[in-house]
Amino acid sequence: MTMQKFPKDFLWGGATAANQLEGAYQADGKGLSIADALPGGPDRFKLVNEPNFDWTIDEANCTYPNHRGIDHYHRFKEDIALFAEMGFKCYRFSIAWSRIFPNGDDKTPNEAGLKFYDQVIATCRSYQIEPVITISHYEMPLNLVKKYGGWKNRQLITFYETFARTVLTRYHKQVKYWMTFNEINSALTFPVMGQGLVAANGASDKKNIYQAWHNQFVAGAKAVKIGHELDAELQIGCMLLYATTYSYDANPVNQLATLEQNQAFNHFCGDVQVRGEYPAYTNKLMQKYGFSFNELEIGENDLALLKANPVDYIGFSYYMSSTIDVADAEREQASGNLIGGVKNPFLKTSEWGWQVDPIGLRIALNELYNRYQKPLFVVENGLGAVDKPDDKFHVQDDYRIDYLREHIQAMAGAIADGVDLMGYTPWGCIDLVSASTGQMSKRYGFIYVDLDDQGNGTLNRYKKASFEWYKQVIASNGETLA
Question: Can you name the CATH fold of 11-475?
Answer without folding.
Answer: TIM Barrel (3.20.20)
